[in-house]
Specification:
Elements: H1 2-19, E1 25-33, H2 45-56, E2 61-65, H3 75-87, E3 90-94, H4 113-131, E4 137-138, H5 147-154, E5 161-163, E6 175-177, H6 192-203, E7 208-213, H7 220-235, E8 239-240, H8 243-253
Parallel strand pairs: 1-2, 1-7, 1-8, 2-3, 4-5, 5-6
Pfam family, one: DUF2334
InterPro entries: DUF2334, Glyco_hydro/deAcase_b/a-brl
Signal peptide: 1-22
Length: 255
């Protein structure tokens, strides 16, 4: 009888475990950190607002630095970046070097692997020199990449995570997370209803979602859309992580 009871308990536990859905991981990929052009603050008010909101709500996220912004000495900006990184809730990542405009080709949409490697290496060098830490994740400014990017990424050992990378890179052997959807639809506009519709249809069952947004483009209406999306995701019992935290999680699963 004891054997039967133990067997039934084991079966019940197996069914319970199999039926439980793993918590979805959300990586907030927020783009285009640069120094404030005018004034006495390190970054724009909109960047300060999103930072303070995430911290107050204990939500992990990641901010993409345009590394050209590290060229010119700016003690206030550099100290803010250091303080935010040290706090551990927000992780900075590399969003390319040049803050391109719509009329320019993207840095990673043309050029050889060596030329693209040089851009990535320059960004890492600036981060080490000015901030004292490397940028372990990468996501291209303006999103476009080529096969040369894939090859270049493998040549920069500091970059261990590719945000919105190919599902199966040809050269890059570290973590690449493909694009499924973004926070915004269209670009720059967080729209809660559009987000919910797409999420339920295409993204709800994904293990991890990288969600791109551009806080410096959010007026009050767009901000309301962003916070509505965050509340919706929280209702789904997701887990917000930094890119490096997710990388550690994937590594822990490996034999």
């Amino acid at each position: 009888m004891l054997r039967t009871l133990l067997f039934n308990c084991a079966v019940f536990w197996m069914l319970l475990t199999c039926g439980a859905q793993a918590q979805q991981i959300i990586l907030l990929k927020l783009d285009d950190v640069i120094a404030r052009r005018v004034g006495t603050k390190p970054v724009s008010d909109r960047w300060l607002k999103v930072h303070d909101y995430l911290v107050a709500n204990q939500i992990k996220g990641s901010f993409g630095i345009i590394t050209e912004s590290l060229e010119k000495d700016n003690a206030m900006y550099f100290q803010w970046l250091k303080d935010v990184q040290a706090a551990g809730q927000i992780e900075f990542w590399m969003h390319g070097y040049h803050m391109k405009t719509a009329s320019e080709p993207g840095e990673f949409e043309h050029g050889t692997a060596e030329e693209q490697r040089a851009i990535l290496a320059k960004g890492e060098k600036l981060a080490k020199e000015k901030l004292g830490f490397t940028l372990p994740a990468f996501g291209p400014h303006w999103s476009g990449t080529t096969e040369a990017t894939d090859e270049a990424m493998e040549l920069v050992p500091e970059v261990t995570i590719w945000l919105y990378g190919p599902e199966k890179p040809k050269y890059y052997k570290r973590l690449s997370i493909p694009r499924v959807m973004a926070l915004e639809n269209p670009t720059f506009v967080p729209d809660l209803e559009k987000f919910k519709t797409f999420y339920e249809a295409k993204a709800a069952k994904k293990e991890v979602l990288v969600l791109q947004g551009h806080p410096d483009q959010w007026d009050d209406k767009r901000w309301a859309g962003f916070t509505g999306i965050i509340e919706f995701l929280k209702s789904k019992n997701v887990q917000f992580m930094t890119p490096s935290e997710y990388l550690k999680k994937t590594q822990a699963k490996q034999p």
